[in-house]
């Protein structure tokens, strides 16, 4: 819905995407590390590991949102390229 949308500058969106990627990379490392640490400490695998579980959730969620964000960026770039192409053709036609 249009009323559910907000508009943010491209540089802010880019920064959000950048930091989301950093958080995802951190989660990619944290989850296996904490599972291995738990195993090295002799704690059974079935025992709840909140940190590893949280890292898994962060990674899963961020994968989804990064994919969605990258689709938006690609759409924006395509539209911008089409506008630039149309403007160039218009300038050439009027020159």
Automatic annotation (TrEMBL):
This is Uncharacterized protein. It comes from Actinobacillus equuli subsp. equuli. It comes from the Bacteria.
């Amino acid at each position: 819905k249009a009323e559910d949308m907000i508009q943010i500058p491209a540089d802010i969106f880019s920064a959000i995407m950048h930091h989301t990627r950093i958080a995802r990379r951190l989660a990619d490392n944290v989850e296996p590390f904490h599972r291995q640490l738990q195993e090295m400490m002799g704690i059974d695998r079935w025992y709840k590991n909140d940190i590893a579980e949280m890292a898994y959730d962060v990674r899963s969620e961020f994968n989804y949102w990064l994919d969605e964000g990258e689709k938006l960026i690609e759409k924006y770039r395509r539209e911008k390229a089409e506008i630039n192409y149309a403007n160039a053709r218009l300038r050439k036609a009027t020159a």
